[in-house]
Amino acid sequence: QVQLVESGGGLVQAGGSLRLSCAASGSIFSNYAMGWFRQAPGKEREFVAAIGRSGGSTYYADSVKGRFTISRDNAEKTGYLQMNSLKPEDTAVYYCGTYWSRSLYGTSTKPTAYDYWGQGTQVTVSS
Asked: Are 80 and 21 in contact (CB under 8 A)?
């Protein structure tokens, strides 16, 4: 079992930055791949970024590539999403998720691959 708690969301103007955190507890964090997803009102949950167990592999949605950076600190059992150059269309509830991975470098863009989710944190970008 893994428990995840996101933090760091808020209201920011377009062009601004936020850093989301995902604190994990309950199991060995380094055994789990991690991803960030977001869901806007009336829309499906969409992939944002993913990182492998070791932190050595990352993958991004085209919409955030070059603006967002995913990272993790396995010793601190925490994942991060640094968001720069934010746009109004980035407004959503952001969720972190994890799944047990045999591979050090495997990632997934599919929400169905993830077994554990946090409660979400709201990010609102004003124009």
From this structure: yes
